[in-house]
Design goal:
Structural class: alpha+beta
Oligomer: single chain
Shape: globular
Largest sheet: 10 strands, mixed
Order of helices and strands: HHHHHEEEEHHEHEEEHEEEEHHHHHH
Number of helices: 15
Distance between the termini: 21 Å
């Protein structure tokens, strides 16, 4: 108890307290333990559980927490989900809900304790036949709530699962037509589940625009969005029947004239930035449900947007985005807005990168899928925090630094890093102190450098915690 009190005294009013709901756990002690673990693992981001806990008693308590059958990922994320809703209510304008799936790969002596994610080709045997092996791991499907400016407000829904055996889509198609299988019997139902959970949590469904890649091109999702009164922008891959069913969407879009051109910057494989010009076409089309499901689902009027790169680039495929949305598109500006919303989908890829590279979630040594899911759920909160700090300094550079830093952290940053040489950031602003923090993580802060990214932010946070503990101990002496 004395060591815990000293730890709380050293760390002060930690940000993690607003992301914890101790009442969500079946036992109040579990809620308090989770608060301690979130604080320790966020302060030692990327470190192991023993490194974060520092002693055997705390480490053993952490292992017991993650393996406790009374602890579920929903309990761990309950406080964060409430905080996400509060930030959502306080925001204005349309909000993007980005959905995507990622997998966490592990190597275990007994992989059945964790489960499998996919089957991969492992070369050929001596007779020349292809060999395959199942990859051990868990999968996570998450919904990240962001503003139009790209500021992450938090997670609205998360689902974890694994597979006892992975047969592969090609093998399943030999026995059954996937289009005839109800969506409830497919893993794809996760897109619908997260849509429902997000709307139920956030409320005001008309404000939300759910954004997904080609994997989310599911007709049932479009119907559900209409039933819930919410919206979507999805990159489509299926060429569906249109009109009265005598032609397809692709055929109808071939006859649509260009609405105009739009220039964007893209980063190509050699890490250089190119400016490309997109030819944009759009049309409101009457889309039919899939054959075999026409009795269950109605036809929908959807807007189809095609953005194709003008000219033939060398060394890469030309850009071709085919988007579908339930929203009306009246002119070129409205079409560009929907394209910009879809391009924000990359934010959830960044979120997953922080989980794997910053928190190093795939380095965890916990033995079972349930324990790993609990740990990754905790890491989700830590990853959101890093991403929020990075983007907040860009969305509101002149904001008060107190929204992200404690008074002690601000004092330490002032003593460690001078005010000059911080990319001309205004004194006393959030941008200035995030730049100082990033310099602790190796950011050079040259005038020509881009704004600090997530990597230097999480490195800076780790160093700042160590420096703060040292400063507090020196004061106590």
């Amino acid at each position: 108890m004395q060591a815990e009190s000293e730890s709380q005294l050293l760390l002060g009013d930690h940000w993690s307290r607003s992301e914890v709901d101790e009442t969500a756990f079946r036992d109040a002690r579990l809620g308090r333990r989770f608060g301690d673990l979130l604080r320790c693992l966020s302060d030692r981001m990327g470190g192991t559980i023993p490194l974060a806990c520092q002693d055997w008693a705390s480490t053993k308590a952490a292992y017991r927490f993650f393996s406790n059958p009374k602890v579920e990922e929903g309990d761990i994320l309950a406080g964060h989900l409430k905080a996400t809703k509060a930030r959502y209510v306080a925001s204005d304008g349309p909000i993007l809900v980005l959905q995507d799936t990622t997998e966490f790969t592990y190597q275990r002596r007994n992989p059945h304790d964790v489960g499998f994610t996919k089957s991969v080709n492992s070369g050929r045997d001596k007779s020349g036949r292809l060999r395959h092996h199942a990859v051990c791991g868990i999968l996570m499907h998450s919904s990240l709530v962001v503003t139009e400016e790209g500021l992450p407000l938090g997670l609205a829904a998360v689902k974890f699962w694994n597979r006892d055996k992975f047969k592969g889509t090609a093998q399943l198609k030999r026995k059954i037509n996937p289009t005839r299988v109800p969506i409830e019997a497919k893993e794809s139902v996760r897109w619908l589940d997260n849509l429902r959970q997000s709307v139920a949590l956030l409320g005001q469904p008309d404000r939300c625009v759910h954004v997904g890649d080609r994997e989310s091109d599911i007709y049932e999702l479009y119907c559900l969005a209409k039933d819930l009164g919410t919206h979507f922008v999805v990159r489509t891959v299926v060429d569906r029947l249109a009109g009265i069913g005598d032609h397809t969407v692709k055929t109808e879009m071939h006859e649509v004239p260009s609405a105009g051109m739009h220039s964007i910057e893209v980063r190509v494989d050699n890490d250089t930035v190119e400016r490309v010009t997109l030819d944009i076409r759009f049309k409101r089309i009457h889309v039919c449900p899939p054959i075999g499901k026409q009795k269950r689902y109605p036809a929908l009027d959807l807007t189809v947007i095609h953005a194709s790169e003008v000219g033939g680039p060398l060394g890469r495929k030309p850009i071709l985005w085919k988007l579908v949305t339930d929203l009306e598109v009246a002119d070129l500006d409205a079409a560009i807005e929907k394209i910009r919303w879809y391009s924000a989908r990359w934010k959830i890829e960044v979120f997953h990168k922080i989980l794997k590279s910053g928190c190093r979630a795939e380095d965890a040594k916990l033995r079972t899928a349930d324990r790993l899911a609990n740990l990754v759920a905790l890491f989700c909160i830590v990853s959101w925090r890093v991403m929020w700090m990075t983007m907040m300094a860009r969305a509101a550079p002149d904001a008060d630094p107190a929204i992200a830093f404690t008074a002690t952290e601000i004092t330490i940053l002032d003593r460690l890093v001078c005010d000059s040489g911080n990319r001309r950031a205004k004194p006393g602003t959030l941008q200035l102190y995030l730049t100082k923090l990033s310099r602790l993580g190796g950011y050079l802060a040259r005038t020509s450098d881009p704004p600090p990214g997530n990597t230097v932010v999480w490195r800076g946070l780790r160093r700042l915690v160590d420096i703060q503990i040292g400063a507090e101990l020196a004061t106590c002496g």
